[in-house]
Amino acid sequence: MMSRIFPLHTSIALFLLSYCECKSFKVFLVSSKEGGSQPLKSHVPAALDVSDIQFEDLPLLVRACRLPAVLDETGSLCRAGLAVVLRHIISKTLEADPSRKDVMALLGFKKTCLKACAEVSKWTRLCEIDIPSAVEAHLKTPTSLQKQPPPSILTLERRLGEPVKVHNDDKIRRQKLKEQRQSKRSLDSEQSSLELRAALSKLSVDSVPSAATRENSEIRKVKTTELPPLEHVFAEGLYFTLTDVVLLPCIYLYLCSLQACEASALLQLPHLLRWYANVQEVPGVLRAAKACGMAFSSPHAPINDSPVSPTEDNPTSQVEENEGHGMLTQPAFVGGPRPTMTKLKENGIEAVFAPHPRPDWTLPWDGLPEAINPTEGNMSDVRTVRKRQQLNNLVAMVTELARPSNTVVDFCSGTGHVGIALAHALPECQVESVLIENKEESLLRAQSRGSELGLKNIGFIQANLDYFTGAFHVGVALHACGVATDMVMEHCVQAGAAFVVSPCCYGFIQNAVKFTFPKRFVAHVVLFQEHMILCRFADQTAVQLPPERRLIGKQCMGLVDLDRSWAAETHGYSVQVMTMEPESCSPKNNMLVGRPPESSGLKSAVSRAGAHI
Predict the structure, then answer these.
(1) H or E stretch at 435
(2) Where are the transmembrane segments (predicted)?
(3) Model-wide pTM > 0.70
(4) How much helix, strand and coil, in percent to the nearest 5, is found in the chain?
(5) Mind listing the pLDDT tens digit for each residue in 114-129?
(6) For burial by CB atoms within 10 Å, which of 97, 275, 416, 518 has the most?
């Protein structure tokens, strides 16, 4: 049986390397114990180049991240987090062998499989974090306490039971109707047969059986709404993707743990068991599983296609409720933001902007190397000037806060405008660019610019924010979109670090896994819907709008950011909301500057304990 000595994220990465037959990586097994990881090598696919290393000997960039992680040849770019690492393994496999269409298919429709970060995508969080964590916790729990499947697995079971919607599925559904009418066999056997054949055909040169042929007139006349739905074959629908690769080692270990005790839990998982059987039909899965020590066996349990009934004792109900809680509903715009602004004003709350301490400060642009200039592609001269003005504001405030030997982190760094300017302006500080939105091409451009400048005090990390665990002193973000601003501020508070953040895209703010809004205004009877109205109107500051409307938008920006600043101040921070100079540098010209409590100092990555803002 697959060894449980590895964390599940490690097992998943090893399984994908084996499935892809990828030999582009040298694998290091990290151990903090004496004696290295020699005993672990017997549980790793033999084809991999494996070495052991102590945690203390890892490069600093890797030590600042949760594993698994990939360090590039230069040592200046680290990719961290399960989904980011897995997608990079696929990229390197295709780079070595472009003919591997089965590997390309793992990225799914438009190559977006697990691309959305877990901080905002509930599906990514379920597959990348919740299910692996739940299985690891389950394996540590005595059998006598395992009364039912973990809530996250019940959520997956429910998802697998939902109808599948795929691009241009009309032909497959009409073929399904045709086979149903022609066959006297039970619907279940035929449905499973057609969907599975359609799924496996994508991994071969064969087409979907008869699905591409013209249907008879009777079938063509059937309305789309009356066609039979498609059932899940794999986690994301009809096709085998990276999500299935992530889930397979998790579900394998979970089912193995149940085989030694009562199988009553399996009665609640009919769709999961069908998925588990389907995955084993995929070419290459059994080979990769064998290399990783996974010995499949079929769990025996009566298959009941009835959905699990949500009851007070069923964890699925709570999971569904929690998932729905974060969804943004369209607010009623009756009266616009004025009623909410009036309500806050009656409670003594108005947008207040602190004076800018260094309004005239500027970088010496004319004397700086060209690679620091924010010009990108066809950026106009006017836009270039505004971008320089934005950078002046952030760099001015960071240089006030940072001290020699400090680590400054540029979150949501894009192509590195802020981070590169800071690394040049603060040669005695270490600057790290953390790319939260996973746009790898942007980070590669930033790395190229840093290399051109010969900067030695800058490193680049492609990771979702939760996977960056390094200690730092100042966090900075220029135009962090929507809740990304809140994620950056929370990360800085957890680290005891100062922050300089310029928010953007207020209209995209919504309740997420970690955050509910408003944060502090709720004490003054501002409801979620009212806060959403403030956010929507905070985006109405474009220069082409009437001045009065822009003024209301600016006031809404100030109120939303005041709520954010109050949340940080509950942790002892001193926070100022100010306007960047000149105001014309951006329609989104707010800047939040937060200083940690004098006595807090810098918290270690290990001691950060659940500061939520």
Answers:
(1) strand 430-435
(2) none
(3) yes
(4) 45, 10, 40
(5) 988 887 788 999 999 9
(6) 416
